[in-house]
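From the methods appendix. Each design record in this collection lists the tokenized structure first, followed by the designed amino acid sequence. Records were kept in a plain field format so they could be parsed without special tools. The example shown here is representative of the layout used throughout.

RECORD:
FOLD TOKENS (326 positions):
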């Protein structure tokens, strides 16, 4: 077994490997999560879900917490399904957690204190929570109390709002003091968004400060080799496959893969999207550049067609089949 890649436990949740599927707004829907599970993801986590939306029990919000077949609790081969919540008020997190408990206990709830998008931050949610480490602690404690400690609670952080305010250590301390089971650290500031290069020296500093806690690295992890290197260099307990897993489910797999394997993975994604979602297949156009960049032959015409004209299942699959090796 690799010294870097190994099983991991978060609270009472025992996972078969430590490359974890990350929550990705507009990407990690049921089809995406199902595909990741087929390729070895040890857990599934929803797109970020608004606590206020859960309180209203709006149709669109509830759709985000529907389980894929690979996440059904009565399926012995399923992987754990967890939910990432965003909001700014402990009382709203409490009520939203009660909604989740009423519908079906999830084994883990993740608190988003990392989203850098302005429309999220202006509500006091996402990375704005880092302006008040004590508030993060209160939210963690609120969820722990309402679930009676039966649900693991994790927190996703950035290193700070900007380079002048790097307070991830204080935020982590408040989270752990109030019962958090794990911290995932994206090693950019919220001001940086996704620009520049993730600096995992901050991951090492976090792990050195909390040696007995579960620390998950996030940022610029595009392959299993990246995952191994970052775990080796920082001592992190695991990594999140985020943007690096879009169009690349092989980040969760230990197998060798070819151009045709990427094409087949995209075809499977098309088939799963059709099964799970009422939304049109053209929403999968955004995945084409991610999958096809891994194909060595010239894919320009196929990419242009899929991204601008593909509407039906046949449009996607026939185009993709034409790229396969003869």
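DESIGN:
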């Amino acid at each position: 077994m690799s010294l870097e890649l190994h099983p991991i436990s978060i609270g009472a949740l025992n996972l078969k490997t430590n490359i974890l599927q990350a929550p990705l707004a507009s990407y990690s829907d049921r089809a995406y999560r199902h595909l990741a599970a087929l390729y070895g993801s040890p857990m599934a986590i929803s797109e970020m879900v608004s606590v206020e939306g859960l309180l209203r029990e709006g149709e669109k919000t509830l759709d985000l917490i529907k389980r894929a077949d690979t996440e059904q609790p009565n399926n012995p081969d399923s992987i754990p399904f967890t939910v990432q919540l965003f909001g700014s008020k402990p009382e709203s997190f409490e009520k939203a957690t009660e909604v989740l408990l009423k519908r079906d206990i999830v084994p883990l709830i993740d608190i988003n204190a990392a989203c850098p998008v302005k429309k999220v931050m202006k509500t006091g949610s996402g990375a704005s929570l880092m302006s008040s480490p004590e508030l993060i602690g209160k939210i963690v404690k609120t969820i722990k109390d309402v679930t009676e400690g039966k649900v693991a609670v994790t927190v996703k952080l950035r290193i700070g709002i900007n380079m002048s305010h790097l307070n991830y250590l204080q935020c982590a301390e408040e989270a752990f003091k109030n019962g958090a089971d794990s911290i995932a650290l994206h090693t950019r500031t919220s001001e940086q968004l996704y620009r520049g290069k993730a600096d995992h020296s901050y991951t090492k500093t976090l792990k050195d400060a909390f040696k007995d806690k579960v620390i998950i690295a996030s940022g610029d992890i595009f392959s299993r080799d990246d995952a191994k290197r970052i775990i080796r260099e920082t001592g992190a307990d695991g990594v999140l496959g985020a943007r690096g897993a879009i169009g690349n489910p092989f980040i969760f797999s230990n197998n060798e893969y070819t151009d045709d394997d990427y094409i087949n993975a995209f075809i499977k994604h098309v088939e799963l999207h059709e099964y799970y979602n009422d939304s049109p297949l053209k929403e999968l156009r955004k995945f084409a550049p991610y999958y096809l960049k891994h194909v060595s032959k010239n894919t320009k015409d196929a990419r242009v067609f899929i991204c601008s004209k593909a509407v039906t299942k046949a449009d996607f699959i026939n185009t993709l089949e034409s790229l396969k090796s003869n």
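APPENDIX NOTE: The longest strand covers residues 44-50.
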